[in-house]
């Protein structure tokens, strides 16, 4: 939370922040001048939102960005500044500092990795701009660095994938394609999966950075290094689709010679299920722009919010039909 003193809209007040609930508004806009620069009191115009998106690395991210932009619109009362960081933390930190200089009312961002944010999060806190964490998580020493986090339960996704493997392929020799190293999604999916399957069943790991090209390259090397692997757990569909290319180039049948368990559930990933090249996919729903909009409006209005909001996920196996895939929103 924002420490002991915050500005609520229209008046400065010393507010004791509750452990879980939080009222937070950006500074500025009240007669005491505030610190948020140009921000205005509720109802006097759009909410200025700075959104730092980590990149455009995967089908999941594309769908997430589309959902965010479809919800955070002028018609919905938002003046959005959206910045893509091309998966570089330094770009996100620059964007966050620019948002402070612009005097936005609310900052939303999906941190590419969990650590390295303390300095800029402290600067944002000092500027009294509330932060909504989207999707990825942070590991920071800054107390009350953000108002709330909205995203998926990455560890549960890993656990769900691991449980399917232990039930269906308990003796599998598993290779694990990890997402961006140090990202919350990578750390927690690995923790959830490995705990269930047991490290003794994992022959090797490598990062494909959540991209198709890097997933393909990592799998090409893994096929050489671990010729006895017979199951791939990939932290996202895009790396799994790249791995399929590598397997087929090596004369392996994906989904048969090497089972593939993936996370995300984007259309191309579910199509691979229909095509029998993926065997199991745990969804990580990227379409939650409306929930982000609702959260931002509540933050701006100074309403209390839960510390986190978990986005609902499900899982799919090869019984999924082409019609179901075609009907998917993303
Ligand atoms: C998960 C998200 C991950 C996806 C990847 O919520 O952060 O990042 O699983 C994406 O596809 O790159």
TrEMBL record:
Belongs to the bacterial solute-binding protein 2 family. It comes from Cellulomonas fulva. The keyword Lipid biosynthesis does not apply. SUPFAM superfamilies: Periplasmic binding protein-like I. Keywords: Signal. This is ABC transporter substrate-binding protein. It is found in: Cell envelope. Residues 50-303 form the Periplasmic binding protein domain. Residues 1-26 form the signal peptide. It comes from the Bacteria. It holds the Pfam family Peripla_BP_4. Coiled coil: none annotated.
């Amino acid at each position: 939370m924002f420490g002991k003193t915050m500005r609520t809209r229209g008046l400065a007040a010393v507010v004791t922040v509750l452990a879980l609930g939080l009222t937070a508004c950006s500074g500025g806009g009240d007669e005491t001048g505030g610190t948020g620069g140009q921000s205005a009191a509720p109802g006097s115009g759009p909410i200025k939102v700075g959104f730092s998106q980590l990149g455009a690395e995967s089908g999941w991210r594309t769908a997430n960005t589309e959902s965010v932009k479809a919800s955070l619109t002028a018609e919905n009362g938002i003046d959005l500044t959206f910045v893509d960081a091309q998966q570089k933390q330094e770009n996100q930190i620059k964007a966050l500092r620019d948002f402070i200089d612009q005097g936005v009312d609310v900052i939303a961002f999906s941190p590419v990795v969990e650590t390295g944010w303390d300095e800029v999060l402290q600067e944002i806190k000092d500027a009294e701009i509330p932060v909504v964490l989207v999707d990825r998580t942070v590991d920071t020493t800054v107390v009350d660095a953000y108002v709330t986090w909205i995203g998926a339960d990455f560890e549960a996704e890993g656990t769900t994938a691991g449980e399917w493997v232990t039930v269906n392929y308990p003796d599998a020799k598993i290779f694990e394609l990890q997402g961006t190293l140090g990202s919350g999604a990578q750390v927690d999916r690995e923790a959830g999966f490995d705990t269930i399957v047991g490290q003794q069943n994992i022959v090797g790991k490598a990062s494909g950075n959540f991209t198709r090209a890097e997933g393909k390259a990592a799998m090409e090397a893994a096929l050489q290094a671990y010729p006895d692997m017979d199951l791939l757990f990939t932290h996202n569909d895009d790396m799994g689709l790249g791995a399929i290319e590598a397997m087929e180039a090596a004369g392996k049948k994906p989904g048969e010679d090497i089972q593939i368990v993936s996370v995300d559930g984007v259309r191309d990933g579910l199509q691979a299920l229909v095509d029998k090249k993926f065997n199991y996919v745990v969804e990580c729903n990227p379409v939650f722009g409306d929930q982000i909009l609702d959260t931002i409006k509540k933050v701006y209005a100074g309403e209390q919010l839960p510390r986190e909001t978990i986005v609902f996920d499900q899982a799919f196996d090869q019984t999924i039909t082409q019609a179901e895939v075609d009907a998917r929103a993303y």
